Amino acid sequence: METILQAKDISKTYHTGSVDVYALKKCSLEFGKGEFTAIIGKSGSGKSTLLRILGSMDTSDSGNILIKGEDITHMKDKKLSAFRRRNIGFIYQDYSLFPEFTAYENIVMPILLDKKKADESKVDEILEECICVNTLKSSLSGGEQQRVAIARALITNPAVIFADEPTGNLDAGSAKTVAEMLSKASQRYDQTIIMVTHDRQMADYADRIITISDGEIK
Length: 218
Ligand code: ADP
Ligand code: MG
What we know:
By secondary structure, the chain is an alpha/beta fold. It is built from seven helices and ten strands. Helices cover 34% and strands 29% of the residues. It binds adenosine-5'-diphosphate (ADP) and magnesium ion.
């Protein structure tokens, strides 16, 4: 399997007042193309910190991150934001859709903004799966909003999609639908997905489960 993301000895300490929180301690991980990985651990174990650093949304104190062989660790702001736009998708617990737009508009937004050439058959397929494309964001259920957010992330063919507790605000039924959509996307589009969750049942949809405890990969 082709390696898409490689993290070597990632450490991160937060300094708040006189207290140091060792959030990540020399974490090393590799993720393959098309692999759907779940990272599980208790609240405060370092999951969100790890995900943000892997996805270049935050910096580590030491260690390196390579995405598609390119070292992003010390990439400058402008280059990094372009790299991020082209290679990284993020899915959040609160969906983060544009409220005044329809599902369809939210999904195709990244293509319009980046003047990217989209893979049209993939776009059609993704849209077809979203039953609610003409509905305004305000009328969508939480589960539907999260499916729209996933569709929006998928549409740009990112190297990696990161999801931080994507089912954290959902009831069990909607959570299952969202987990199934992620699993299906990893298979159908060979999409690399890294999902953080504290919910073991969600993690079972992934190909691989990694446990983090007190900032260390177990
Ligand atoms: P998780 O997502 O597993 O709940 P986090 O990565 O959010 O864990 O947090 C790991 C540890 O780092 C916790 O002890 C948390 O309190 C601390 N932490 C996270 N973010 C910050 C921050 N911005 N400033 C200070 N401490 C933080
Ligand atoms: Mg978290």
